[in-house]
């Protein structure tokens, strides 16, 4: 080029370093009437920007203009470079044949150095198309030439691309090595956008290696870098959605993918990205429980990939479409053949999804009662159980379990289920966030159900108990992973509390709150993102429930444990006690859930005066619940205390309402194992008691002043002293804590369920920061025991957050209660505790001491004792 061309050529690397700056300079250059070569560069820069961040149609117009200007200038290197850029844009536009033809012309022009850059971009296009072997061939040809030319930027790009191809075919170790080498080279350049891109790739690599927290942290870091550069993040959304699905957050992944599709359509963006986003949405819709959307998005993705001549991608979209149709109830012989063909095709591509397709073929064959055909496909899928990411290995163990079941081998089923669940146990220990630990259990739901089915068929009640416990409340079995000492998280929690308090005050005063609510939602998103990035606290203690140890503990206590197991909507009652485990039949879970909702409505009505006429209806519902949930086991209960272990969907049942439990000492636990651990938890040596009274209670927390005389070593926090920091410091390691404060349950985000204090809400996230939560905790307000079922029978909420942190027992309410009626209940409860009773014993006696009117009875039933203290 002529004088000054060096400055003009600097625009090309600038578009990947500071894209917006490069765009503005290129537009100003064109306004100056430059010569053809310079104008070619300017149009190429604008075309790259529009291709990657804007309107693809506009990008093609600029790139064609750049090509024509390069030809007019008589510069083979310039023309070859533009042809390569145009080829990438055409491939992204779905015009694959034209794009590859442009590359072919570009390879035939220019110097060896320019040809190497063209080969890199053709390799990138082959990667987009899923033609991984051709991509590797081109990038391997390009790297030595680029290294010889000491072209650091393009060598780094080539290493990044080669790593991406390795990752696509499951060669994670090779990918990590190339990404590390590329990142080292990027550190010597000013290519900020490329640096952000490699952080995004490292996130995906961490995920492929099974490290979800690291992946989420790196994705967030990449997003911050892109935001600073002002560039869109469509590809990041695709990759992040994959991680969200694996973390059990499929509904969030679907929402993010659909939002990205809308944004891409709004700017006329790349059709290749549109197809990938449609596939991403389809992959999320299935586990999110929306099969119709899965079919719709997958079918659209198949059509686009086919038009774009992207067979690798089309095969993956066809797999998702087949899975969605099977989930919707379709099954026939053609589907078996198609799934098997997909497995072969995906295997030829080196795709890690091949076992998933083979598993689908086996499932359909089993559904059609074709055992020999099913065995063939399941055996192929089962090979994945030996290596790879946790999800792939679980797929293999599911296939192995289905093979064993088809062969009639209960022992084989149980062995496969045990090994598969062990994989997920190991995976869960890497996750620090309780939400991720709970949601990842969904991946083991089928294995757990297969094991329970085999145990039930064997007829052994103890074996069924053992396998029911194997995956119940598993998120609580691992050691608690407290949030990291992150100053940003602490600052966000403080800001959230302040904003929420200001919003509540504004609502009371009738002032508008939209701006405050937007800031509150922003802070919630930031807090949640920070907590999801937390790493796990290490391996658990490795203990599994020993039914003999449970029975022995119950024998020493003179009590019984009732565990409710659900298979195919039928409740099975396991009654443990008296030296044995017995099994009884219950009713349908769906009917019990409906009755429980009616009971909750009745309790809400009885919390207010004038609802006494509903008391007989509530008692009748209690009798129906007993028949559905306990069946004949109700008549077999001995005289001692009873521990109830219900499934997650029944966490809101007021167990004291059931006739056979009404006058008993009853406690509730998420699992038998959780109860045993709570039973073995020693109280702290301090003997310290804490009373907290929050603002805005109808009675002013009238029980609190009357309790101060009951206890010796006492901390009382009320008024302006009942602030979050002071309350948390007082609660840490306390023997007994009583909090009288308004409770708010957040079904949409259960870890933001809270207690209202003087300076705003005290959330579950705050409680998780305790070194040791109170040994006993009493929450005297509404909704403090409500929990959100997630994953496979896991629960999220205040109670489940406290149990792994040292709390052995909680008394809380799962329904709205009458504040005035709570006062005598709490006074009687504490009187029993002062006499040495357990929480469950004291609560039973407190209910009996209440007046006999409907409001007081309903108040007593609304409270439950959790745990074993």
UniProtKB/TrEMBL annotation:
Lineage: Bacteria, Bacillati, Actinomycetota, Actinomycetes, Kitasatosporales
InterPro entries in the cross-refs: CHAT_dom, TPR-like_helical_dom_sf, TPR_rpt
SUPFAM superfamilies according to UniProt: TPR-like (SSF48452)
Source organism of this protein record: Streptomyces chilikensis
Sequence ranges assigned to domain CHAT in this UniProt record: 620-867
Designated name of the protein: CHAT domain-containing tetratricopeptide repeat protein
């Amino acid at each position: 080029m002529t004088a000054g061309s060096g400055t003009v050529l600097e625009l090309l690397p600038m578009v990947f370093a500071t894209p917006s700056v490069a765009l503005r300079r290129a537009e100003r250059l064109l306004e100056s009437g430059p010569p053809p070569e310079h104008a070619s560069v300017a149009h190429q820069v604008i075309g790259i920007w529009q291709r990657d961040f804007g309107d693809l149609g506009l990008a093609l117009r600029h790139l064609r203009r750049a090509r024509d200007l390069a030809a007019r200038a008589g510069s083979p290197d310039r023309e070859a470079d533009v042809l390569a850029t145009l080829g990438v844009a055409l491939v992204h536009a779905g015009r694959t044949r034209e794009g590859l033809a442009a590359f072919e012309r570009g390879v035939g022009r220019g110097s060896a150095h320019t040809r190497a850059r063209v080969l890199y971009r053709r390799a990138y296009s082959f990667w987009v198309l899923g033609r991984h072997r051709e991509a590797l061939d081109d990038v391997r040809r390009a790297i030595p030439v680029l290294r010889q030319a000491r072209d650091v930027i393009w060598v780094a790009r080539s290493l990044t691309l080669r790593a991406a191809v390795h990752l696509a075919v499951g060669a994670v170790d090779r990918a990590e090595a190339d990404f590390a080498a590329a990142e080292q080279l990027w550190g010597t350049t000013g290519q900020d956008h490329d640096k952000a891109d490699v952080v995004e790739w490292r996130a995906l690599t961490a995920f492929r290696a099974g490290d979800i927290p690291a992946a989420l942290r790196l994705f967030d870091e990449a997003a911050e870098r892109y935001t600073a550069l002002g560039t869109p993040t469509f590809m990041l959304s695709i990759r992040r959605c994959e991680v969200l699905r694996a973390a059990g957050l499929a509904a969030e992944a679907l929402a993010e993918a659909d939002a990205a599709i809308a944004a891409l359509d709004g700017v006329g963006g790349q059709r290749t990205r549109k197809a990938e986003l449609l596939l991403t949405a389809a992959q999320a819709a299935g586990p999110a429980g929306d099969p119709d959307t899965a079919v719709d998005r997958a079918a659209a993705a198949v059509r686009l990939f086919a038009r774009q001549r992207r067979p690798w991608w089309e095969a993956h979209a066809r797999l998702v479409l087949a899975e969605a149709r099977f989930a919707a109830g379709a099954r026939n012989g053609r589907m078996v053949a198609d799934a098997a063909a997909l497995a072969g095709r995906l295997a030829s591509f080196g795709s890690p999804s091949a076992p998933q397709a083979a598993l689908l073929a086996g499932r359909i064959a089993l559904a059609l009662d074709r055992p020999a055909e099913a065995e063939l496909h399941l055996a192929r899928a089962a090979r994945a159980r030996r290596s790879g990411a946790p999800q792939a290995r679980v797929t293999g163990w599911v296939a192995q379990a289905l093979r064993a079941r088809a062969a009639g081998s209960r022992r084989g089923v149980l062995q496969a289920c045990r090994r598969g669940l062990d994989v997920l146990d190991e995976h869960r220990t890497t996750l620090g966030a309780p939400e991720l630990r709970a949601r990842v259990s969904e991946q083991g739901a089928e294995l757990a159900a297969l094991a329970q089915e085999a145990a039930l068929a064997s007829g052994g009640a103890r074996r069924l108990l053992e396998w029911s416990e194997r995956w119940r409340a598993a998120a609580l079995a691992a050691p608690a992973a407290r949030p990291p000492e992150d100053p940003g998280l602490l600052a966000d929690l403080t800001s959230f509390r302040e904003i929420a308090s200001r919003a509540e005050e504004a609502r009371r005063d009738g002032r508008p709150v939209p701006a405050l609510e937007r800031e509150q939602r922003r802070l919630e998103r930031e807090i949640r993102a920070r907590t999801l990035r937390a790493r796990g606290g290490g391996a658990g203690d490795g203990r599994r429930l020993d039914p003999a140890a449970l029975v022995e503990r119950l024998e020493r206590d003179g009590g019984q444990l009732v565990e409710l197991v659900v298979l195919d909507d039928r409740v099975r009652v396991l009654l443990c006690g008296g030296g044995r485990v017995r099994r009884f039949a219950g009713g349908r879970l769906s009917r019990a859930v409906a009755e429980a909702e009616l009971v909750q409505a009745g309790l809400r009505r009885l919390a207010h005066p004038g609802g006494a006429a509903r008391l007989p209806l509530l008692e009748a519902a209690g009798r129906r619940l007993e028949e559905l949930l306990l069946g004949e086991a109700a008549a077999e209960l001995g005289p001692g205390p009873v521990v109830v272990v219900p499934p997650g969907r029944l966490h809101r049942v007021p167990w004291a309402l059931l006739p056979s439990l009404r006058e008993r000492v009853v406690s509730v636990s998420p699992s038998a194992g959780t109860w045993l651990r709570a039973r073995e938890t020693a109280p702290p040596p301090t003997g310290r008691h804490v009373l907290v009274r929050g603002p805005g209670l109808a009675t002013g927390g009238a029980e609190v002043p009357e309790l101060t005389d009951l206890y010796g070593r006492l901390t009382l926090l009320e008024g302006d002293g009942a602030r979050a920091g002071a309350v948390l410091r007082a609660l840490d390691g306390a023997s007994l804590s009583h909090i009288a404060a308004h409770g708010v349950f957040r079904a949409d985000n259960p870890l933001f369920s809270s207690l209202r204090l003087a300076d705003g809400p005290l959330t579950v996230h705050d409680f998780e920061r305790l070194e040791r939560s109170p040994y006993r905790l009493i929450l005297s307000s509404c909704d403090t025991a409500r929990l959100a079922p997630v994953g496979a029978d896991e629960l999220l909420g205040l109670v489940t957050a406290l149990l792994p942190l040292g709390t052995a027992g909680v008394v809380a309410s799962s329904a709205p209660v009458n504040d005035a009626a709570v006062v005598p209940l709490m006074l009687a409860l504490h009187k029993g505790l002062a006499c040495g009773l357990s929480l469950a014993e004291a609560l039973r006696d407190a209910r009996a001491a209440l007046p006999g009117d409907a409001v007081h009875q309903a108040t007593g039933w609304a409270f439950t004792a959790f745990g074993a203290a």
